[in-house]
Amino acid sequence: MGLRAAGRTRCAWGRRVIPTQDLVSDLRACMPRLRGRVIANQPLSEFTWFRVGGAAQVLFMPEDETDLAEFLAALPREIPVTVVGLGSNLIVRDGGVPGAVIRLGRGFGDMRLEPGSRIRVGAAVPDVKVSRMAQEAAISGLAFFRGIPGAIGGALRMNGGAYGRETKDAIIEVRGIDRDGRMHVLSTGEMNYSYRHCGVPEKIIFTQALFQGEPGNAETIAAEMDKITEARETTQPIKSRTGGSTFKNPPGRKAWQLIDAAGCRGLRLGDAQVSELHCNFLINLGGASAADIENLGETVRMRVRENSGVDLEWEIKRIGVAIETRQ
Lesser CB count within 10 Å: N end or C end of the chain? Predict the structure, then answer.
């Protein structure tokens, strides 16, 4: 199958099992123009806020959109692809992640102002930097990004929101590359957004976004951001090893209230704990495994279901292969 983005032939190995190090060597041989880093058996725990989880079979960190397109177009179809960002809303299971894990880095970290109170941002840019740039440029409507942990790519994929606004409220267009290495430019309507959900297929990796704000006052925006910072510091365990909000709010309800009513505030499983400060946050007290954290979350879901009949839906993304819980 031809490489549409760069005129190359897709690598093919059939269905045979290839050792990871050999796989990396074969990928490099098949993609001689690749400029990004390709690493075998890269531990992913260092990339997640929980600091847990196994290794990526192959980790690829592309230099830019062209490099990413080259990799995706040539990658054999039988090799699965998983995308990770800053790891703020992520559990990597202890058995690791098979296939290729893609992590966008410096080549996707550009930000620039555009006419009409707009900001164009790479998918690897931390959300907080977008709010800061908007504030310094006196652009209102983007301060809510101060309250969202992680990077823009994750906010785009999950329709991240905080303090009354969501990503969909500020989007003009999004760029992304699909599994064949083809570029897509999507409008807000094509993103098919709903609460903490994006309808764009996972095979498209978001690389860039254009946000729309409104002319504002820099001091007023700074004060708004200060209030958001204060609210987060006083109500959320942001200095702990956590993954942000664990469960989505059910329609008309608050997840934390349901968890509290089910008696789960402070609940522990090994070194995994439901935060006593905000019980929709799970915490790694230091020695928890990914299984401990995920199993604690499932215990919370079970108790909430038994207490209120509500089936909480995970907001944290969980990837990889689970292994048995430690006894």
Answer: C
> Is 76:100 a contact under the CB 8 Å cutoff?
no
Fold exhibited by the domain 109-219: 3.30.465
Angle, helix 218-235 to helix 127-136, in steps of 10 degrees: 150
241 is catalytic: no
Query: Of 165, 196, 305, 318, which one is the catalytic site residue?
Result: 196
Phi first, then psi: what are they for 311, rounded to 5°?
-100, 100
Classify domain 239-307 by CATH architecture: Alpha-Beta Complex (3.90)
Which residues lie below 8 Å from residue 166, measured CB to CB, with a gap of 6+?
144, 159, 160, 193, 195
Q: What is the mean pLDDT of the chain?
A: 90
Q: Which of 117, 245, 275, 289 is catalytic?
A: 245
Give yes or no: 175 in active site. no
Contact partners, residue 103, CB within 8 Å, separation at least 6: 47, 59, 60, 61, 83, 84, 85
For 3-42, how does the pLDDT look when each residue is reduced to its tens digit (9 = 90+)? Answer: 333 334 455 444 444 456 677 888 888 888 889 999 999 9
Domain 20-103: which topology?
Answer: 3.30.43
